[in-house]
Amino acid sequence: MRLVKPTINLKTAYLEMLASWKKTTEKMVPFSLKYDTEDFEKFIAKNNNLEINPEKGFVCHTTFWLLNEDNEIVGTSNIRHALNDQLLLEGGHIGYGISPTHRRKGYATQILKLSLEAAKKIGIQRALLTCDKNNIGSKKVILKNGGIFRKEQLINGNPSLSFWINIK
Questions:
Q1: Residue 39: how many CA atoms within 13 Å on its side-chain side?
Q2: Were both Cys, which of 11, 74, 96, 150 would link to 162 (CB 3.0–4.6 Å)?
Q3: Domain membership flag for residue 106
């Protein structure tokens, strides 16, 4: 398994993963999954540009795709290079998601592990992660990757948990 930055070469694989996800009624996380892919070259350029030139109200961030052994895109992660006030409450440094068709195979644990390694290369030494309190799977993944409970809080009326992970 490996993380790769978005590339035009994986257009078919990405669109297949995205279509599979959209067939469900599940929330798509991270937010970068919601970017318009109509013009795929523009979509790739936008993802790459956001590493150095964030949109208003955002911080610089890097998106990765998780490829399995068959070169299928099974998930995606988004690493925020810094935290603003909003990310301190919700979102943290890393958001990740695994396509519903590829869950319960250990991919979430792997994408977070690899994303923490990528975050370290960006210069992040301690990563903040958040999840909905009722998302038991995400909580387990964060704990498996060294998550240390920070606090519980209400976000838009929903209980949310946050964790710090010291990156080695």
A1: 4
A2: 150
A3: yes
Classify residue 70 as exposed, middle or buried by CB count within 10 Å of its CB (0-12, 13-18, 19+): exposed
Residue 131 lies in a domain: no
Report which of 93, 112, 96, 92 is spatially closest to residue 153, judged by C-alpha positions: 92
Residue 27 has pLDDT above 80, yes or no: no
> Which residues have CB under 8 Å from 44's CB, separation 6+?
6, 7, 8
Domain contains 71: yes
- 157 part of a folded domain: no
Contact criterion met (CB below 8 Å) for 80 and 59: yes
Print burial letters for 112-131: b (CB count within 10 Å at least 16), e (below 16). Answer: bebbbebbeeeebeebbbbb
Exposed, middle or buried by CB within 10 Å (0-12, 13-18, 19+), for 152? Answer: exposed
> 131 near 140, Cβ under 8 Å?
no
Q: Give CA–CA dist 55/35, Å, rounded.
A: 13
For residue 135, the Cα-to-chain-centroid distance in whole angstroms is 15
Q: Average per-residue pLDDT in the chain?
A: 92
Query: What is the reported pLDDT for 28?
Result: 74
| pTM summary value | 0.92
**Structurally, how many domains does the chain consist of?**
1
